[in-house]
Design goal:
single chain; alpha+beta; 4-stranded antiparallel β-sheet; 3 helices
Length: about 180
Amino acid sequence: MDRRWHVMRTIPGKEAEMTDLLERKVNHELWRDCRILRKQQLFRTQGRYLLGRKNMFPGYIFINTEFPKELEKELRKARQFPKLLGSAAGDIVPVEEEDLRFLEDVCGRDLAHDMRLSTVRVDEEGQVRSASGALKPYVGRITRQRLRHRYVTAEVPLFNRRENVLFGIRVDGDPV
């Protein structure tokens, strides 16, 4: 069986603590990589925009393993580990191919990079009309835009439903 990405759920804000615990306590033969997916976002302070990072999916950890059943058994032994996402039976579920394509498009093949800012062009009414970067395929699906705060949300088919994903943006001409 090939190594595949799976998802674990934990308390939002405790993702780094859980990946550290996984690193220290679980046999590395059961898993290869563990990621907290992040995105770039601009923050306005004192009239300037600063580049920051935020978790893309708060409360979720992505893990690459070819031994999901064995990993699940190991995680169940220690109650401090994050709950695994899955069916009612508790099986861990691999990330679906379509979802993995989106994640790889925005975070790179090994899910190791931050989702970068998308550059947008805005019309006279202040509406986003085009974009480059991760947002480009979803310009027609924007559900909310906050240009002053430099983000938009767009409806993305993800995890067997339609998710409103927050994309960090920069407006064409921003100094950042």
